[in-house]
Write a structure and sequence with these properties.
The chain is α/β, with parallel strands linked by helices and 113 residues long. Helices cover 22% and strands 41% of the residues. Strand 4 and strand 5 (75-79) form a beta hairpin.
């Protein structure tokens, strides 16, 4: 499981993200993936799922939203939802982001924008 990074997101800007649960016998963990390149949330999942399956994981999208990433001010805001997958538990997403971006202020809300 160590081969899979907890977070892969764009270094700057506002973009869609998904919270993905990885599972294989005896292991389970959640990861965050987000990018401006994705027009829809399912585009992110369609990229992540085959990569994880090659490593022997079963993937499930737990929901989505948006991340506003301000690298200059070291701030991230998690908000919104995915029309297709529903709203991710943003509090879980924030905890995962904080593990990687330890010197950032990371917040969340149920705001749509």
């Amino acid at each position: 499981m160590a081969a899979v990074r907890d977070v892969e997101i764009d270094p700057e800007g506002t973009f869609k993200y998904i919270l993905v649960r990885l599972q294989r016998p005896g292991e389970q963990r959640d990861i965050v993936r987000g990018t401006k390149a994705a027009e829809f949330h399912n585009h992110i999942f369609e990229k992540v799922n085959p990569e994880m399956e090659k490593l022997g994981y079963e993937c499930k999208c737990l929901g989505g939203g948006k991340i506003d990433h301000n690298s200059k001010d070291k701030k991230m805001r998690v908000f919104g939802l995915s029309t297709g997958y529903g709203k991710a538990d943003h509090s879980v997403t924030v905890e995962i982001l904080k593990k990687v971006y330890t010197d950032y202020e990371v917040t969340w809300s149920d705001d749509k924008k």
